[in-house]
Amino acid sequence: MKENILKDKSFNFAVRMVNLYKYLKKQHGEYILSQQLIRSGMAIGAIIREAEHAESLKDFIHKLSIGLKEANESKYWLDLLSATGLITKKMFDSLNRDYEELLKLLTASVKTSKQRIK
Asked: Alpha-carbon distance 75 to 10, whole Å?
């Protein structure tokens, strides 16, 4: 079976979001921010999986574009968690690296797909 880096990276990011959610609940008793983060962080991979069965190239692009929006929202919550001291700089830097990698892959996929339409 062919490796799908975007699918794998988004799944691994979702796993990290689940683990971060558990950490925030246990260490800080924090529920509101962590619930927002887990929703957007897990949605990225779910949307990418959905895009695998898109009805058309336009539908594929649309779904991945929604994934970009969810990634952007996840970044907001990570920034907020960092700014409020709920996660350490080391944790933020590690999570942010994964986010940046995922963002680059998603952006490249959307760009390449848009070029195919032309």
From this structure: 14
Domains in the chain, ordered, with CATH? 5-111 (1.20.1440.60)
Global pTM? 0.92
- The sign of the dihedral angle between the CA atoms of 11, 41, 93, 26 is negative
In this predicted model, what pLDDT tens digit does every residue of 6-52 receive, in sequence order? 999 999 999 999 999 999 999 999 889 999 999 999 999 999 999 99
Give the C-alpha separation, 102 to 2, whole Å. 19
Give per-residue pLDDT as tens, 48-64: 999 999 999 999 999 99
Distance CA 33, CA 46 (A): 20
Contact 9, 76 (CB under 8 A): no
DSSP structural state of residue 53: T
